[in-house]
Amino acid sequence: MAKSQATLEAEKYGAPVSYQNGSSEASLEGENSIAVLKRAHRKVDKRLLLWYSFVYLIMRIHVSNISNTAIINIEQGTGIKKQLGNLTSQQWAWTLSIFYYPYMFFEPAATLMLKKFSPSVWMSRIMLTWGIISMCQGATQNYAGILACRFFLGLAEAGFYPGVLYHLSFWYPSERLPLRIAFFYACGMFSGTISGLLAYAISFMNGAGGLAGWRWVFVLEGLPAILCAVYTFFFLPNYPETETFITTNEKQAILDDLPKQAPTMNAKTLNLTQVKELVLNPTFVPFLFIWILHGIGGWGISFVLPTVIYELGISDTAQSQLMTMPPYTFVFVILLTLGWLIHTKRLNSWIAGLGLEIGQIICYILLIIVKNKVAKYIFVMIATAASQSFFPIIWPERIRAAHGTTTAGLAIGTTNSMAQLMGIVGPQIYQSKFGPTYRISYICSIGLLCGCVGAITLTWYLVWKGDQQAKLKEEASQQVERGETPSDAEAIKI
Going by C-beta distance under 8 Å and a sequence separation of 6 or more, which residues neighbour residue 45? Predict the structure, then answer.
């Protein structure tokens, strides 16, 4: 049977041909449904995706600035560790790690709070509190003060990243998310480039107004988040059903494009049946292991990247800040390339993920073997870029495996909360006492990443198996609707 024009256009756009609330053909009167859907998504991309990507860039600057401050102006004797009481290697590791404890434990609930209070309200609250607390870090005078600020900063920021993914799932089906999540994440990772440049520039403000350079980093980088909170409160789109910047036809096209199991505005925030289904789903635990193992093994080095580069002995502290820029720029390129390949069906997410993990393992092995400092810097750059490209590549598969409003929120929040172990354990593995070779640190990363390769393989199989079961169930349901019996269906196949 020849395919209809609507079907051909749907396949070209990568759209599912069957709709949630309509037939297999275009259901919007007077207009082609695919054209309407593409126009609607472009509007949503501009209003929602671009704004979240900009805010995520600001957020990642906040997260990474503590790593940059570690080496700012230490030659002048006004470094953060000295001014806070000559912090030891272990104390500094705890300064980095404590941020992630409230982040990890509060994140699942914080993700569901987006549905409870509405995205515009909850996201603006997150931005306002993290901006204020970030600036407070610049006023700390001792070890206890910086620990308290870091703890409450983690509490304030919890729920932003998984909240964005959760919010996007109200607007887009999972098959349209790879490129969008890759772009969103790439913008956040590009903050490493900006953060290094800002830290380099702000280091020359050392002594201005009687403040050390590291204090200026926290003060100046906290202001944008407060301004973002104001805009978000008034202008962030909430749900397709409530917004006026899209037409009625465009709203319907967006809603028809969503799968039946997608989160919806009118669904209960907390459905205990869905909670049970999530926990009993065979992919639940393997996905958690992927995020834990990659988070610690892959991301660990990123929390101390300026220090690792500085201890290679090829640059001073100011130049080391600039040398953190190439790895994050490389992340931007890798993510957009892989996101586009996956979005256009030229590459499988699971294969891309395995490739990134194997690439990191090779880099860490070479970092142990190779002695040349320039070569070591190149391998550190590649390993950092590969590690930070991994999560956004796999996230669409995690979202696709979650069915229902509560399930999606908790699955995204819980999975991402487990990744926060990277900030708790990572700095401990990469303490400066293991430098400048970091041999022990690299061996730990290799072991964890090998475990992650196994977890990815297992999860890929379980997701595939679930897809096959869902396909058979759907076929059986369609047979019943057509009045067929199993014997009828078998006769048709014969």
Answer: 180
In angstroms, the CA 21 to CA 27 distance is 9
Give yes or no for a contact between 172 and 262, defined as CB atoms under 8 angstroms apart: no
Sequential pLDDT tens for the chain (494 residues): 444 444 444 444 554 434 344 444 444 444 577 888 999 999 999 999 999 999 999 888 877 778 778 878 887 888 899 999 999 888 988 898 898 899 888 999 999 999 999 999 999 999 999 999 999 999 999 999 999 999 999 999 888 999 999 999 999 998 899 899 999 988 887 776 777 778 888 888 988 988 998 999 898 888 999 999 999 999 999 999 999 999 999 999 999 999 888 888 888 878 888 888 888 999 999 999 999 999 999 887 776 677 777 777 776 666 776 777 788 788 888 988 998 999 888 999 999 999 999 999 999 999 899 888 888 888 888 898 899 899 999 999 998 888 888 888 889 989 988 888 888 888 788 877 887 788 898 999 999 999 999 999 999 999 999 888 878 887 777 777 777 665 444 443 43
**Residue that has been written with the tokens 């989160």 in this structure:** 263
pLDDT digits (tens, 9 = 90+) for 216-254: 989 888 899 999 999 999 999 999 999 999 999 999 999
Long-range CB contact pairs, 197-204, < 8 A, 24+: 197/321, 197/322, 197/325, 198/61, 198/65, 198/68, 199/65, 199/68, 199/69, 199/72, 199/306, 199/321, 200/318, 200/321, 200/322, 202/72, 203/72, 203/73, 203/317, 203/318, 203/321
Instruction: Report yes or no: 408 and 166 within 8 Å, Cβ to Cβ.
Output: yes
Ramachandran angles phi, psi of 72, nearest 5°: -70, 125
Question: Could you tell me which residues come within 8 angstroms of residue 477 by beta carbon, excluding any fewer than 6 positions away?
Answer: none
Q: How far is CA 267 from the centre of its chain?
A: 25
Helices 405-419 and 160-168 sit at what angle, rounded to 10 degrees?
A: 150
Q: How many CB atoms lie within 10 A of CB 116?
A: 12
